[in-house]
Amino acid sequence: xxxxxxxxxxxxxxxxxxxxxxxxxxxxxxxxxxxxxxxxxxxxxxxxxxxxxxxxxxxxxxxxxxxxxxxxxxxxxxxxxxxxxxxxxxxxxxxxxxxxxxxxxxxxxxxxxx
Length: 114
What we know:
Layout: E1 10-14, H1 19-29, E2 34-39, H2 42-54, E3 58-63, H3 69-83, E4 88-90
Parallel strand pairs: 1-2, 1-4, 2-3
């Protein structure tokens, strides 16, 4: 069901080629948003975008490794050039930290909503 308020909105979802990111992409796309499928592996992002497109979702693949400042800048430029805006950003991509770090030892969680 397309939501007229969301029809012309653009959403970037990191880690969107599988799992929760892919499902968020699917569900938001079903409401009429254009979804930018961001993944470290561009081919994986293209496959996910093609699959979503086959389901009626407007999806575009973007290569984006959130730990690589050059790729972040390239993605920013691509979004700016192609869409002129970004309405929604969902930072879903995970980062594996080396060492003995465990999520269960975390003392806080930070969520930034702009």
